[in-house]
Amino acid sequence: IKPCNLTGWWENDLGSKMQVFEVGKDGTFSGQYHTAVSSTKKPIQPSPVTGSQHLDEDGQCTFGFTVNWKKFSDSTAVFVGQCFNGDDGKEVLHTSWLLREKVDSELDDWKATRTGHNTFTRA
Ligand SMILES: CC(=O)N1C(=O)N[C@@H]2[C@H](CCCCC(=O)O)SC[C@@H]21
Q1: Residues 73, 42: contact at Cβ < 8 Å?
Q2: What is the three-class DSSP state of 122?
Q3: What are the CA-CA distances from residue 57 to residues 2, 51, 60, 111 (Å)?
Q4: How many C-beta atoms surround the C-beta of residue 81 within 10 A?
Q5: What was the pLDDT predicted at 87?
Q6: Staple 74 to which of 1, 9, 83, 102, CB 3.0 to 4.6 Å?
Q7: Which residues fall within 8 angstroms of residue 118, CB to CB, at 6 or more apart?
Q8: DSSP H/E element including 30
Q9: Nearest CA to ligand 1 atom 14
């Protein structure tokens, strides 16, 4: 199995793209997330990604990352997932995510977290 390294460009079926800069010896990485969709009214801008992946196993690593939508939303997303080598030799990232929006009142805390899942392939 090929060793797993998330460095590079990824895209999902929403048309969002993620660029992972180089992955450190400890598995940490940073990058940029270009979301194609948003529930905010402000214009979308690239957002910083910080994350960590496993490096020790022989490939098909698990990872997590956080996206701070700092320029256009006061929400935060966290993704967890695993990289698989498809039978066609192509890598695919299966992820689940939590999107926490900022709510003005604690009374609205119950409805402030959305969840979903999504798959990324090499862009
Ligand atoms: C991969 C995936 O499903 N998603 C993706 O690529 N973009 C949307 C969300 C973008 C949030 C933007 C900021 C905001 O609207 O508050 S994070 C989960 C979802």
Answers
A1: yes
A2: strand
A3: 10, 18, 8, 38
A4: 22
A5: 82
A6: 102
A7: 12, 13, 14, 95, 97
A8: strand 28-34
A9: 38
28's CB contacts (< 8 A; 6+ apart) are 50, 51, 52
Look at ligand 1, atom 10, and give the residue with the nearest C-alpha. 38
DSSP label of 107:
G
Give me the tens of pLDDT residue by residue for the chain, a chain 123 residues long: 678 899 999 999 999 999 999 999 999 999 999 999 999 999 999 999 999 999 977 889 999 999 999 999 999 999 999 999 988 889 999 999 999 999 999 999 999 999 999 999 999
Closest CA to 79 of 102, 53, 98: 98
Burial of 84 (0-12, 13-18, 19+ CB in 10 A): middle
Q: Phi and psi of 12, rounded to 5°? A: -120, 180
Which atom, in ligand 1's list, is nearest to the CA of 77? 17
Quote the ligand 1 centre to 75 CA distance (angstroms): 10
The token pair at 25 is 């010896």
